[in-house]
Amino acid sequence: MNLKTTKLREAIGFALAVGAASAAGTGLAFAQESTNEAKTLDTIQVTGSRIKRADLETSSPVFSIDRQTIEASGAATVGEFLQRSPAISGAATNPQVNNGGGAGAATVDLRGLGVNRSLVLVDGKRWIGTISNANGAVDINSIPMGLIERVEILKDGASAIYGSDAIGGVVNFILRKNFEGLEASAFYGVSSRGDADTERYDAIFGMTGDRGRLMLGASYDKEDSVSAADRTYSSQPYQLYAGQHGIGGTSRILTGRYVVPRSSATGVNLTDPNCGTGANVVLTRIDGRPGSSPSDFRCFDPTTDVYNFQADGNLNLTPQERTALFLSGEYQINDNVEAFLLGSWLRTESSFFIAPLPFDGRAAVDNVPISANSIYNPFGVDITDARLRLRDFIPTRTTRFETETYQITAGLRGSFGDSSWTWDASYGYGRTPQSSAVRGYLYSPALADALGPSMIDPVSGNPICVRTPGNAATAIAGCMPVNFMGPAPDPNTPAGRAQLAALDLINPTVHNTSENVLKVFNANVTGDLFELPAGMVSLAIGVERREESASSSSDFLTIIPPGETVCKITQEACTFGDIVGSFDVNEIYGEALIPVLADVPFAEKLNISLGTRYSDYSNFGGTTNSKIGIEWKPFSDLLVRATYADVFRAPTIGDLYAPTVPSANTYTDPCNGYTGQATADPRACAGVPTDGSFRQSNNQVTSFQVANPNMKAEQGDVFTYGFVYSPSWLEGFSITADYWRVKLDDFITNLPENVLLNQCYSFGRFCDTFIRDTSGDVAQMTNVIGNFGTLKTSGMDLGFRYVAPETAWGRFSWNLDTTYLAEYDVRLLAGDPSSDVGAFPGIPGSSGLAGTFVDSAASGFGNMARWRALNDISWRLGNVSASLTTRYVHHVYESPDVADVTEPGYVARRRVPSFTQTDFQIGYVFEGLNNSSIQVGVRNLTDRQPPLIYSGFNASTDMRTYDAIGRFYWMRWTARF
Predict the structure, then answer these.
(1) Reported pTM
(2) What per-residue string of b and e applies to 571-584 under the rule 16 or more CB within 10 Å gives b?
């Protein structure tokens, strides 16, 4: 058990001693126009507390987005509008993420702390995690958009109130209530370039009676893809080498890359400087040559012999299609008891496309050599290092997902007579099965036969595969030799068609399935305990039991047998098994609101809120997390507030039990330019030439990501203080200013591949995590997740709001929400300053991630811009309304150069320009048609393209942060009956 009573006692003592000299939180910012209703509101439950009260402004900072603002955004999905919030940073996924995404999902990453450190609720209750690798993150696109009334974002730690994951904050989707009639809407949008066609249709029917209400709804949306080749910024894999802008790519090219003995390269021009002086030479086929003779090859030039994978199949927007049904209802059983029900079903069909398969025959990768006795091998020696991009050999790599999300919550709630006490109890069940169909890979055993010994059948005159070279009697049934030394097969020739038919036989469709299940029971009681001179002391107590499980079933072709490193198809699609895991947790919590002072000089109000929660997990034990909050109103115009909270994150099922899977991660080899100098462990540069000539041949390595069933929970604390100022001398105006600080220990993460390699090189640690091939290249890595380090981040939220008085020119309103990131420091190995994470390997000793970009594909934390802002100016006159919204992301710095840091001209640090996106919409309400309405708008009005980021994995930019589509026109018609 991890009891944190000491911290809580200290915090309470501090609070009582100094009142609210320090205070925290963001103000409650509404997009609706009315601001004068707070004094007459019934008691409600605001995100961040279980206690019902009349005050909208509490000790916890909450930012609210109402339905009108959502509709004015022109977003077709929940993720599109929510990811614009300045509080969201880092590396959340969305449908723009192609390689590493494609499931149609959008996640939330508050404060850049990670998608599984931000809790997502629907009407205050947990929603099923719908990401297939069981990492606990919620796909917010699975929440029915047509049913959302508003979204409340709590920018504060809330483990004492909600349990695990509420570290960066909480996003609570509040659904519509008391809807009557029929509402139907149709949305259509298209980019200025004629792609990204988007359509959405929603229908909601509601009815109310004396004893209850019922609401039914359905929705459908479809979004077409955007090809990377159709945008200038993404049409090439741009690269910076020794300060020179150029076109990068990969060594797995269309004309191949083959390592053969120098003595076998007869007919090759070996005087070419690219041939080097070693015993082996690296060759590529001369474009346009058949590859049937050594003279058809030349020495490989690593600076120009690269493949543009960006324009060959990759997408900037993945296609997605969703169909959803939902219902919501309440029924008054008697005067004190009401039953309620929420049900939702969603089906998502989506896919991603990436460049054609890069065949890599090395033993540590695909382990498929080209035999010396293949009829297509002109060199007469086994080629164990052959790499070839298989465009037009087999279909491009694609994965198609079908995901369903079922969520149902049913319960009872009521009151105890005429008292202030209310209760509720509910049971929630969520299930999300997902299936995937994967194409574009080859069946390795059959490929090994097809690239193995072969000959011309003396009887038929056709090429055949044989077990014994030159012996037709050992022909392999059903096998036809394939040519990986020449160009792609020509479908217009009989020989080409035969080759394609042979490849089709060994190009399987791989089928995988996975499923997450969530079961939650909770019960809560809240009401007033007794009255103090300053007001009523209120209490909320409750219990919760949660069960989570995940399972998967991988195609047998993708399973790596015990003791081996490759499966039956290409390595990047391999896994060591299936996920089967579960845990349960029993929790009890209590929360109290204590009014200390009221209506006295310098204290119109002084309240203290206290909360604590004990959680008992089946897999790692118990943890207690507490919270204290202060609300102080020295006078009516000013609210000062502060919170201090213990927080934790339990390891997810994916962290604990996920099968080992490969990931193509980027790295920089510390042995580049190695001259034989001493390393902390001889394994660090084993097999690397010592003449200084070594340069890694790829900037990506297949790294196997391994779960760890022995992990414990992350622990930390969150501290916030700030104020809300609403001057009585300027009605409708308010300012919020809020400082926040988050500290985490036992940080759950995979160490970046660079860290593993550098730790071995400098300190002799983690040297068993990688394998080098015979040429010295890192061929494969193993990366086990664990409780490694510490994280500290802090910053400030600033908000401004003004609703001008009604005039003959209409009513204007202005909202500006900003976030400043002051620090983001990560130490991956606790107590080891050498593991402090920095973004610039070329600047010794640099650390800290605030203001930087390190792609998540390189095990980075994503986009950590210091400033983010969302500015909205709205206007309404009668039935006409309009809004102009501007989103701003400050400049960041990247490490752009792929050259070795010792290379002349090496650029260690580059500024990535800031990004500003402006959206405009105008609408009209038809009063004579039951307030039906029409809206038209333009997203990204100025057609701003995302900035070039050389280190960006997808599309040479940051697809998780910036708009990738460009100018987008849209229209929505809403009919009400």
Answers:
(1) 0.88
(2) bbbbbbbbbebebe
